[in-house]
Amino acid sequence: MKTKIPDAVLAAEVSRRGLVKTTAIGGLAMASSALTLPFSRIAHAVDSAIPTKSDEKVIWSACTVNCGSRCPLRMHVVDGEIKYVETDNTGDDNYDGLHQVRACLRGRSMRRRVYNPDRLKYPMKRVGARGEGKFERISWEEAYDIIATNMQRLIKEYGNESIYL
């Protein structure tokens, strides 16, 4: 059985330059099919970047920095102490509906705020002149009484509009 080859194929002249061009274009086409664009991949969050231990509890909290976003935080607590803070990594991060809210570095550094040595942990009352920096520790009951007394005084003197709750 004899195959018929069109005369145009037999008459076509192939130059070295044409062969190199055609081979290069074919090679690029094959190579580009193996590559994908960065935005065409779907990223899935892993359950946790750091493996959890059996005595570790994960407590949900919120970022309380003054930006107003209130981003969710995952506090990893061992023996009542925060070991590290992780942002929300649950769910899909897609653009079909609501996107996943992740805390910025201010929120992720919440552990530093909690354990800062300058953080107030109990009520203080100024005993020196304003700006002098002299304070004494008072009980919570005394602090609540001072606040309530001053709020009542302000309402009595200036009306209900003088305070904002």
Automatic annotation (TrEMBL):
Keywords: 4Fe-4S, Iron, Iron-sulfur, Metal-binding, Molybdenum, Oxidoreductase, Signal. Its cofactor is Mo-bis(molybdopterin guanine dinucleotide). GO terms for biological process: anaerobic respiration. It holds the Pfam family Molybdop_Fe4S4. The keyword Metal-binding applies. It comes from the Bacteria. SMART domains: Molybdop_Fe4S4. GO terms for molecular function: 4 iron, 4 sulfur cluster binding; electron transfer activity; molybdenum ion binding; oxidoreductase activity. Residues 56-118 form the 4Fe-4S Mo/W bis-MGD-type domain. PROSITE patterns: 4FE4S_MOW_BIS_MGD (PS51669), MOLYBDOPTERIN_PROK_1 (PS00551), TAT (PS51318). This is 4Fe-4S Mo/W bis-MGD-type domain-containing protein. It comes from Escherichia coli.
